[in-house]
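Predict structure. Chain length: 271.
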Amino acid sequence: MKKIGFIGAGNMGLALIKSLVAADSADYKIYVYDIDVSKKAVIEGMSSNVIFTQSAKEVVCSCEYVFLMVKPQQLGELLDETADSISSDSVLVSVCAGITVDFIRERLNNQKAKIVLAMPNTPLMLRCGATALAFDEMTSVEEFNAVRAIFETSGITATIPLSQMNHIICINGSSPAFIYLFAQGFLEYAQANEIEQQAAKKLFAQSLIGAANMLISSGLTVEQLIEQVSSKGGTTIAGLEKLRENGLETAVTRACTACTERAIELSAGQV
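Prediction complete.
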């Protein structure tokens, strides 16, 4: 039985815990610590295999795999607090944006620590998340695959080099927020034109789902998919022209760049 620990039971932590419980696997025993003790009843009510601990140290002392689900600004203090309790066999999984393997090892004073970096997103809460994962040679392939299997109870994963972790954040970690802002523009237009909001939301959301499936499964390029929707002289072309005139692609690039730059600042400790 693998012993899995979670330090931090916010949206991401709870999503993973729920997915592990829903997987109905007898292979896991789950230890959870959160500073908000009011979560104890809810968390322990999920399964007899889930234990709410009294401290972060209790989690790292008990578990083979420890998921660090705290804010980047809180991670240094957490590592200082638990460094002397972390086993050399433990695999640490950080979901902290901008935090590097080197930073974690320096705070632990352990250059051989086994670390996996993860960038999930909030759709994990519906078990349709997208998580980017990276690791180095200190973590075995078997250990990494065990971590990946945990995230895959909540969605899909992709493995990327450690050097790309700051750049991937905008692609899957932050992009849901960008998409929601994009959606808001369509829903506000619908409201201004007295289209019933639930109908507009339902139609637009399904269009997002359908477009995403086309992007994944059609075998066509983005340009070809755009052409499929666009008839010469038609309504879609008119809309696309305005999106381009107003710099949609430039705005997306700038948003991604800003996201990456902030991750780099966090890496440097500029919180």
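Summary: The CA atoms of residues 10 and 44 lie 15 Å apart.
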